[in-house]
Amino acid sequence: MPVKKTALLFFVLATQFLFHSSPLFAQDWFRTGTGLGNVEKPRIAVADFAARSSDPSAHAGLFTQIVRDDLSFSGIIELVSPSFYPAQVPSQPQELHFLTWTDPPLNANFVAFGNLTESPTEVVISAWLYDVRSSSTEAVVGKIYRGAPTDPQVRKFAHQFADEIINKLSGGLASIASTQIAFISARTGHKELWVMDYDGTNQRPLTSLKSISLTPRWAPDSSRIAFTCFASANSAISAQICMYSLDTGRIVSFARYRGTNSSPTWSPDGSQVMFSSSMQGSPALYVSDASGNRPKRLTYASNGADTSPAWNPKTAQTVAFISDRGGLPQLYLMNADGTDTQKLDLPDMGYVIDPSWSPNGQLLAFSWRRPSGNYDIYVMDVASRRIIELTRDAARNERPCWAPDGRHIVFESTRSGSRQIWTMLADGSQPHELTFTGHNESPNWSTK
Amino acid sequence: MIQQHRPLYRALLISTCSIALFIAACKKPIAPPPPPPPPAPVAAKPTASLSADRTSIQKGESVRLTWTTTDAQNISIAPEVGAVTAQGSTTVTPADSASYTLTATGPGGSADASVRISVTPPPPPPVVEAPKPSMDELFLKEVRDAYFDYDKADIRADAREALGKTADFFRNYPQLRVTIEGHCDERGSTEYNLALGDRRASAVKQYLVSLGIPADRLSTVSYGKEKPFCMQSDEACYQQNRRGHFIQTK
Question: Between A259, A369, A442, which is nearest B190 by CB?
Fold first, then answer.
């Protein structure tokens, strides 16, 4: 409780700094009250998993490293530094001595350990998590994974084990260790649709359209990705909505319309797609079924373009979008049926783009280029309209997209010299670069 | 056969001879030849022929004249060549079109022969000589793009002037169909720029339609900031990239 109060106080202070441009604003980075500070982080030690194989290329080291990385990345766990671990670590529950881990300097709450038995055709991984502060001899997590002894398979098992731990310790919050990030990469010379594991490994192209692909958006069940492509409609090339099926590994049909059709977003139940289209003149928002049929026009601004719709994934009632009907591109809210449009006023002028809802439907991340500076990423608590800045003085930062755990944001940034994809915690801390090759943009986190 | 046509044969012979009477060459059938005259006191009439290997050249080129004569003592070619032998060849380089005349004079009279060489001006320099500009070249030269202000899709005064010229060109080539590409500088988002580029392309189209260009000749596409003309992050480049750009629809 005291923790929560402090966080709220800090939140309010931070907001005041924003509004009043206090000198402190220029020096301090803001941290959000997005729930991160409310959890006392448990300390977990991940012992080196034992390799029960003479093969030096065995996967025990890889498994251990990925579990540590996943837990550390989660933002809700404090990983106990391996340098303090005892020389003899357990490989199975009978070898675990609780006191070894609870005493200083380790001060662990939990210990993860286990072993890998490998043959040329199979790896068997036994993995446990024990609460060394409780008197129970029951494992908190106990799992056996069997599969092909390959790097990708072992990587997958490690993510699954980390998912189990995070899920148990966070009280059921979604874990992201098995999630993926879709993005656009121009590293082949054309902007194609790509996908990678959430930690940046396993980067691979999904399309080879050799044209321009943009703005990928995962379907709520993560079976399809809607994106903007350039394709022929009525014998003229223009921006269209394309649909990639991960089940079939190919593009499936989506209706095409004249004009510029772009920037799709999914209804939370996956039955509808909303997008910007100039099929009837000025770019406006339309909603169609998931195959693009029966489009219905939602917005009618007479002067200006409406685009970048983001459908509230929790309530399904509200859509955030960008419109320049008032001059500059600004943030608007409307009901999903197009009624009750309202502008979300920010305390300063400038461009506002790229709205993205948090999974709980309460926070809106967006990019804002204030008159004085570059694009930075902000989060607004929509109910209170309070705003927090997440990035600052680090080149251009755009396209925030929330992870399904609500604790991470993936975004694109030019801070490393070229446009690359980064993740950070939703308070702006722990920035972490995922891509390094070529030009990469427009990340979108899978829903599971 | 001859037997059968004897009357016809005879009729032909008679008519031929009656014609020949006029030139006194058919006396033979009528009178026996006179005794042969003394050895020819009358010389043979000269003959002359002249040819050229080409009768049409470009200025500066040469042509070879070849001639033969008979029964002549004074033989010359004019202009410029002068006296020549009974037969031979020479090259001439006429500056302008000219007729060369071979004159052969001898005791039996004279004969002449001519050949006309026509001289065309040298080829003009390649630039002038280049084939008529292609439609692609004309298009590049005559069609003006429309440039826009930051974050705006309004047709500026300079764009009205440019589009007026463009419309003139389109009117002169009524078969021409064009695509108007809407482009933006790099500052907005991908999504917003696609929408803004769409508005720019549409604004250009509307303006051309207002100048009388049929709408069905004009299609539009927005590339947002995806196909920049330049890559620098400065205002000069931003302005280059904020435009309605024309391409031929082929």
Answer: A442
